[in-house]
Design brief:
The radius of gyration is 21 Å and the shape is globular. Mean pLDDT is 84; it is low at 188-192. It has helices at residues 2-22, 26-51, 56-85, 92-112, 114-122, 128-132, 157-186, 208-221, 231-242, 249-258, 264-281. Helices cover 70% and strands 0% of the residues. It has two domains: 2-186, no CATH class; 208-281, no CATH class. The longest helix is centred in the N-terminal third of the chain and has 30 residues, at 56-85.
Length: 282
């Protein structure tokens, strides 16, 4: 079951990456992804009914680690669709208030579920059998109306909660990124603009997610301005240099973390460089 799910998740992330290239409108993109992820979840649910699990350990791992990765994408993009579709069309202050209210909603969810948040963040396995093994309903750990919307054939209540936690992390990053962009838009006097030669025009011709991975790597290495740049500032400036619109790159970053090889572009270009160096010796 685990191998099939990993293959399904890898294929899904590749399809999302392709959709991001094809669809520039954030709401339209999120809507397409929601439908795509939902279809994949339905296929996985069918596999659960047909194949089941070979052991209790496999089932716990699936509902604690594997399924939340995909289910969190569904929650994340569903939220992004609503966020983009209903946000104020005019007025920086109105948009800022709208985004901050969304952050309050996320924080409220954290407070309501703070006991499980602590368990999730601790990495503990003490209550895994209760939380992630189907049929282990405990009213003391599931006393919320959300329990009623969880179909126990395909999920556990705490698998659902884990998915919401992961999704909220991505949503918080998305909102923070949007707020930073608003601040940058209002600060029109940028004294540290990078001078870009108009000839020749540099165009990034690799994949969009590879560009995102590269910029995150440079930011983490503090290789530019001694790291005295936010990831948003670095992403926008690199985007200007290479004629790329980074979009809401935090979503791409979290998708990278879900891949079997999260930093695969870094490994790829390192391998290409090593091959060139080897050929220089021949």
């Amino acid at each position: 079951m685990r191998t099939k799910h990993l293959a399904s998740l890898t294929e899904l992330l590749l399809k999302i990456e392709q959709l991001e290239i094809e669809i520039k409108d954030p709401a339209a993109f999120a809507e397409k992804v929601v439908l795509l992820v939902r279809s994949n979840i339905e296929l996985i649910n069918e596999k659960i009914l047909i194949d089941g699990f070979s052991s209790q350990e496999e089932e716990i791992n699936f509902f604690k680690i594997e399924k939340p990765k995909m289910l969190s994408l569904y929650f994340f993009y569903n939220c992004i669709y609503n966020l983009e579709a209903f946000k104020p069309k005019h007025g920086v202050s109105e948009l800022k208030e709208y985004l901050l209210n969304k952050k309050v909603e996320i924080n409220s969810f954290s407070v309501e579920n703070q006991v499980f948040y602590k368990y999730h963040n601790s990495g503990s396995t003490r209550f895994d059998t209760t939380y992630f093994y189907r049929g282990k309903f405990d009213i003391k750990t599931s006393i919320t109306c959300m329990y009623l919307i969880v179909d126990e054939r395909f999920c556990t209540f705490h698998c659902y909660l884990t998915s919401k936690i992961l999704a909220n992390q991505m949503i918080s990053s998305y909102i923070n990124e949007s707020l930073l962009k608003l601040i940058n838009q209002t600060n029109t006097s940028t004294s540290n603009n990078i001078e870009i030669s108009k000839s020749p025009q540099l165009n990034w011709t690799g994949s969009h997610i590879s560009f995102i991975e590269l910029v995150y790597a440079l930011h983490e290495d503090k290789a530019i301005n001694n790291g005295d740049l936010t990831i948003t500032q670095l992403m926008e400036n690199m985007g200007k240099i290479f004629n790329v619109k980074p979009g809401h790159f935090s979503g791409s970053y979290h998708e990278m973390k879900l891949r079997t090889s999260p930093a695969k572009y870094m490994y790829y270009i390192a391998e290409k460089l090593l091959k060139r160096m080897d050929s220089d010796h021949n």
